């Protein structure tokens, strides 16, 4: 996703930002960790990395809402969505949209079904968007700072093994997220 090294350092800022933004659409937590490590290594500036991350994650979240809204309109798309049962659901999503969005930002695997459900059940868009952006700012900043610290330590102290440590750190983020998401589906 993000190439850390001299190849990235020589790229124009717009290309670095575009790479980070596209990375958020694929795996946003991994894009965040790799961007933080690239920033720590001096390959990309912190403001550019964070700005691109905020933009990419927010656009992705709003896109999930839009996907849900499109599914409500077109039955063909509905079959691709995982949605809760309809009984009183629209009222519940409208009433609890801030809580739903804020909590699901911090629970791996929850954003896709809940954000699309918010769109599908017509939760108030403005409340959804503002909460999604604020939760993104908090979560992405915290994960970015953690990854900068851990990534910086790995880059400074692990010598030739630093790349293995960085790969292990990224893999750990992905695996933990998948395990938590799997536990949620098993417990339902």
List strands and helices in order, with pairings:
Elements lengths: L5 H4 L3 H28 L5 H28 L1 H4 L10 H17 L5 H10 L4 H33 L4 H26 L1
Molecular structure report:
Helix content is 80%, strand content 0%. It has eight helices and no strands. Helix 2 crosses helix 3 (46-73), helix 2 packs across helix 8 (162-187) and helix 5 (89-105) packs antiparallel against helix 6 (111-120). It is mostly helical and 188 residues long.
Compose a concise summary of this entry:
Helices cover 80% and strands 0% of the residues. The protein has helices spanning 6-9, 13-40, 46-73, 75-78, 89-105, 111-120, 125-157, 162-187.
Task: Offer a few descriptive terms.
8 helices; 188 residues; mainly alpha
From the spread of the alpha carbons, the general shape counts as elongated
For the secondary structure, the number of strands is 0
Strand and helix order: HHHHHHHH
The share of residues in helices is over 70%
Please report the number of helical segments.
8
Distance between the termini: 33 Å
Radius of gyration, in Å, reads: 18 Å
* Overall pLDDT confidence: 82
| Poorly predicted residue ranges | 184-188
- Biggest β-sheet, characterized? none
Strand content: under 5%
Structural class: mainly alpha
Keywords: Cell membrane, Membrane, Transmembrane, Transmembrane helix
Subcellular location: Cell membrane
InterPro entries: DedA_domain, VTT_dom
Protein name: VTT domain-containing protein
